[in-house]
Amino acid sequence: MAYNRLIFELSSPGRIGFELTQQGFQDGDVSTTLDASLFRDTPADLPEVSELEVVRHYTKVSQKNIGIESGFYPLGSCTMKYNPKINDEMASLDGFRLIHPLQPLSTVQPLLKLYNETATMLNEITGMKGTTLNTFAGAHGELIGLMVMKHYHELRGDYRRTKVIIPDSAHGTNPASAMMLGYETITLPSKDGLVDIDTLLPFLDDTIAGIMLTNPNTMGLFEKDILKISKAVHDVGGLLYYDGANLNPLLGIARPGDMGFDIMHMNLHKTFSTPHGGGGPGSGPVSVAAHLVDYLPSPVVTKVGEDYTLSYPEHACGQVGGFYGNFLVMIRAYSYIRTVAHDLMNVGPNAVLNANYIKESLKNDYKLVIQKPCMHEFVFSGLLDQSTGVKTLDIAKRTLDFGIHAPTIYFPLLVEQSIMIEPTEVESKETLDQFIAIFKQIAHEAKTQPDIVKTAPHSTPVGRLDEVFAARFPTLHFKALQKVEQK
Predict the structure, then answer these.
(1) 239-244 and 208-213 as β-strands: parallel, antiparallel, unpaired?
(2) Looking at the structure, do residues 327 and 396 belong to the same domain, yes or no?
(3) Contact 295, 317 (CB under 8 A)
(4) Residues 171 and 217 in one domain
(5) Has residue 412 been placed in a domain?
């Protein structure tokens, strides 16, 4: 068969891999005190397999994944930046892993101290004055940051500010977050991939709550006029929001707070080494300038004398989660920051160097829209020679045959046939050279054997799918898949 047998297909009636002993169960145990209405009428439909079958099955499944530990993923800090094993080991310590958020504060004082120290380190890295770790993801951080912005204006009685300016190169979550809070969004056209101050000025008036910027932006370019932008927005009473998704290249070199940003979120699960590929977990701390600290969400970990406690400031924008964020992600970030603190100034520059190395090595094969040095990422517009009709999707599919994950494609939307590449600082020159060689080979194949590229992938467990058909008529059960295979 073309597919691995699923665990239910391996099932054989009566086969047992592990048996729970009945010894020690007495009257009064949980099993005898549950209400009868909670018991099943029929046994659970579980596979009956041996331990060895389970081990082999899930080992084979895991080997079909492409992840940062099995190959290069050229979109690093956004999704698959390497998470050093020491960070996982720290987060797995019993003292962290076995705590409960409802424990008395007196029993978790060292953990509250660690929480407080993490926020302090993030303040220093970002140039901000206050940080909350209570948010659960980057988009959640965006929402909370905008809540702080709205709360600030409304507490001052300034209800006219109903608009947020967002450049056309922004992440898609930016307008979504703003609209969730009832803001009207104004799309700001970019010029040569950057915010143009002359284009921005006509939009600025007393209805503007703020502007959301990513710097460097999604084109991988640093906003050279950021100080002019900051002054112009502040002059009309607006605030600057920093989308921290692209914070990676700034580590140790520049700080959003020094650029004039008032609010920002950052992704612990990206920049600070806990990849969110596969769906989680995430963490999106929000940091603010001094005049907004009182508006951060409750509870706030506060040091009183030698003890740590939780405070609930009067003007906080509310409580945004059941407890205090994804604690174990914070532990990983704390471990990462403490590990690289002595070398932090090399993180950003190495990310920038790696991206520019790939860009310059491939610019004679792939089309560069903007001929400028990039920061941590850059964007191609498909192949330089597109005469054979090979598209960006074909290139992405072909990369899978070489055992590397495809880069992000068709984003940002500003660039036709876009290919976004972001190696981060963790990859070696040897890995980058291998990636460059693969992309050069694909470019050569596109000219000489385009059908190989157009029909890729060829060596993966599943070949090229009809993605439209699969989206509209998904096969969600393995028995239906069997019928398709038999046909």
Answers:
(1) parallel
(2) no
(3) yes
(4) yes
(5) yes
